[in-house]
């Protein structure tokens, strides 16, 4: 697999989740992000 094939296979909508733990404060913080990955043509500006 070359780099271009990797990016083409990665195209689409992705969802990222994270949890951060603040041990000193005994709290957890959650975050969520929607990511759209699109391939571009070689001549795209």
* Strand line-up in the sheet with most strands: 1-2
Rg estimate, integer Å: 17 Å
Shape: elongated
Low-confidence stretches: none
**Amino-to-carboxy terminus distance:** 26 Å
What oligomeric state best describes the polypeptide chains here?
single chain
Average pLDDT number: 94
Could you describe the largest sheet, including whether it forms a barrel?
2 strands, antiparallel
Which secondary-structure class do the elements indicate?
A: alpha+beta
H/I helix tally: 1
Number of strand elements: 2
Helix content: 10-25%
The H-and-E topology, N to C, reads as HEE
Task: Give the percentage of residues in beta strands.
Answer: over 45%
Could you characterize what this model shows?
With 45 residues, the protein is an alpha+beta fold. The chain has a domain at 10-37. 18% of the residues lie in helices and 49% in strands. It has one helix and two strands. The protein has one helix at residues 3-10, and strands at 12-22, 27-37. It has a two-stranded antiparallel sheet. The longest helix is centred in the N-terminal third of the chain and has 8 residues, at 3-10. It starts with a helix and ends in an 8-residue tail after the last strand.
């Amino acid at each position: 697999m070359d780099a271009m094939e990797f990016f083409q296979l990665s195209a689409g909508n992705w969802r990222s989740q994270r949890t951060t733990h603040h041990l000193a404060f005994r709290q957890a913080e959650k975050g969520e992000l929607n990511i759209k990955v699109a391939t571009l043509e070689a001549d795209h500006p």
